[in-house]
Amino acid sequence: MSITLQDVALILGLQIDGPALVGNVVVGAGRRWASWPDCCDDLLGQHPERDVIYQDPFNPRVSSKFRMGQAQAQTCLPLRWLRWTFYRDSYLDLNEIDFWRHVRAYILFLMGTYLVPDTSGCEIHLRWNQEFIRQLPTGSLSSYRDELDGLLDSQVIWEPYTSEVRSQVADICLSGEAIWLARVPLVCWTRVEWHLPDRVVRQFGLIPTTEVQPMELKFARVDGRGKADTDWMVYHLPYIGLWEDR
Question: Which residue range or ranges hold the Aminotransferase-like plant mobile domain (predicted)?
């Protein structure tokens, strides 16, 4: 079992087909924004202020202060701040500028929690006690693997997205159907992850074989910490080329 582009499109409603999610360095002296807080102010309308106490919209008794990461460069946004700040019961009364700011915040939150979470673990701390996480059976990788290994064939819905399901979703969810089975690297700034649908072909109504190609043997994930000035379009150029040839 694996997360596929089909899952991302049909569950999250995100467009999956298009240019690689990477660009040139735009923050720093002589660039579009002088600092990351300036970037946030422009695209989101605000950034976390260290001295401001923020209120949890879901629990008025909970409040917190936030800052943009531990480093002096201030390159991170707290996911909880995004959720608290941009949550609204309705978005109908927003003007166009504020609406797009909320859209950007929502996409950032999805990327940081579900699609390409980083190594900070800030989202994990909200759900589990980090100190004892390895002692909890529900929080360990081996526990999940054991549960999956114990499933019977009859307990798995191999093709969850039936024609009836697909007929009820928005057009954007089906716009990238042509690449659901593409075996390509997915590029998101510092991160590259391989999309390997050939390991879960039963999800697409196909018959699995034992001739599954291994992932790139020399593949290694990159840690983006301390690389604020790295031009990731150049760094990941080989992977971007593979994605563009999908």
Answer: 126-207
Q: How far apart are CA 46 and CA 29, in angstroms?
A: 21
pLDDT per residue as tens digits for the range 159-217: 999 999 999 999 999 999 999 999 999 998 888 999 999 989 999 999 888 777 777 77
Q: Which two tokens stand for residue 71?
A: 């480093």
Close Cβ partners of 212 (under 8 Å, ≥ 6 residues apart) = 198, 199
- Are the CB atoms for 63 and 56 separated by under 8 Å? yes
Q: Using CA atoms, how far apart are residues 9 and 192, in angstroms rounded to an integer?
A: 19
The token duo for 83 is 């959720």
Nearest CA to 181 out of 16, 13, 19, 21 is that of 16
Q: How far apart are CA 21 and CA 232, in angstroms?
A: 10
Where do we find the tokens 């927003």? 94
Separation between Cα atoms, residue 155 and residue 144, nearest integer Å: 15
Given a contact cutoff of 8 angstroms between Cβ atoms, the answer to whether 194 and 216 are in contact is yes
Residue-wise pLDDT tens digits, 124-173: 233 334 444 445 455 566 777 888 888 888 898 999 999 999 999 999 99
Give which of 129, 103, 124, 102 is closest to 113, Cα–Cα.
124
Neighbours of 230 (CB within 10 A): 15
